[in-house]
């Protein structure tokens, strides 16, 4: 009797285990692909941000050189002070603007680069919903 009833049950259990293994493999593959996309977006975005910082610092250095040259042509201490004040004001405005832009780009990067992982987490949640145990 056990053999007659046990074989179909064993076959059903093996089919369920096989499906669970296939589903887990597909989920892991999707998770790896999402992580790969996220890393690619981060890498590209960080390269862009690094280039923006480099450009900002290069501009600061060029401004410093121009300010220093202008200071050497000053005819009086008052003129030198005016040149220096103008240089620092311009530099502050430029750096503040560029830093603000970099902050915005960084926030956008975070959102874009985390999107694949957020989508995968949502898919996992949807996938797991039917398997939740009753509380």
What does this structure look like?
Residues 24-120 form the Phasin domain. This is Phasin family protein. It comes from Muricoccus pecuniae. Helix content is 91%, strand content 0%. The chain has helices at residues 2-72, 77-128. The longest helix has 71 residues, at 2-72.
Set down the secondary structure blueprint.
Layout: H1 2-72, H2 77-128
Count of all domains:
1
User: What about the largest sheet?
Assistant: none
Mean pLDDT across all residues, rounded?
Answer: 87
Shape: rod-shaped
Brief account:
The chain is built from two helices and no strands. The chain is an all-alpha fold and 135 residues long.
List keywords for this structure.
135 residues; 2 helices; mainly alpha; single chain
